């Protein structure tokens, strides 16, 4: 499965495990890379830059294949100045960075001067064009289906991916609603040169999220997520639990950000990840959860996705060449 993304990143398959807060750790990232994709360690997870250094080194003990680091540019996500994270990843030989949350403009010079391949994640076409203008090497476009922050416009991948492909010359990576080979083949057919998946990789054995959450994901449907926080301009797709429903109800009443904060605080979600308390807080989950039926090892999942994607592509070729 060869695209510009596989060539530029020197990976076997155009499949990326996107940066995920708390769970974007060494084992998951390295396992995805070792299986032929690209794994990403999420810098904002760590309390210090030296903690990030340790995580990078741990990942390198598992694989010698390329890995990336996510730099979240949204101000509230920063425990440590991003300059410190960037210094560490450069010192540790990381040459692929995923940026998200805000424009990466202020960091582009140091990244490009050090030969870093920059993938910027955006929720809309105009932001993709800006990323290209800034010198980003690739752009990830996130559809309405995605967990986390899909943007405010509620446009799905079938529309937003080809729009973005038409608007920029750099490679486009598609994210949102993808969890199997059919999704990969569909995004490639729309012009994307890679896919990013988050929710699907939560439900793998190498992900550190609690087994209670993985077991819930196996039983969940595509209706078990909610789009919250639109009233404060920070649309978030999360698991439809008690806290998410409280947030939706509060937003209907027109509450302020200050009133919402006790509900949406990231500290509440710690028990979700570590103790498996499904209703403890807000945690990101995409609509693709409705397609998840098991919790395999990453290698098994990657093999299955690639096999199924190739099967779909061959089927489409047969249709196209039928006489």
Features of the shown structure:
two-stranded antiparallel ribbon, single chain, globular, eight-stranded parallel barrel, 10 strands, TIM Barrel, 43% helix, 323 residues
CATH architecture of the largest domain: Alpha-Beta Barrel
- Evaluate the radius of gyration: 19 Å
Order of strands across the main sheet: 1-2-3-4-5-6-7-8
CATH evolutionary superfamily of the largest domain: Aldolase class I
Sum up the overall morphology in one term. Answer: globular
Structure classification: alpha/beta
Number of strands: 10
Pick out the low-confidence regions. Answer: none
Give the total of domains: 2
- What's the pLDDT, averaged over the residues? 95
Q: Tell me about the biggest sheet?
A: 8 strands, parallel, barrel
Distance between the termini: 27 Å
Individual helix count = 14
Structure description:
- With 323 residues, the chain is of the alpha/beta class.
- Strand 2, helix 3 and strand 3 form a beta-alpha-beta unit.
- It is globular and about 60 Å long.
- Helix 2 (26-34) runs parallel beside helix 3 (49-62), helix 3 (49-62) packs parallel to helix 4 and helix 8 packs across helix 14 (298-320).
- The strands form 2 sheets. It has an 8-stranded parallel barrel, surrounded by 7 helices.
- The chain folds into 2 domains: 4-208 and 292-320, TIM Barrel (Alpha-Beta Barrel), CATH 3.20.20.70; 225-284, no CATH class.
- The model has no long low-confidence stretch (mean pLDDT 95).
- It is built from 14 helices and 10 strands.
- The protein starts with a helix and ends with a helix.
- 43% of the residues lie in helices and 14% in strands.
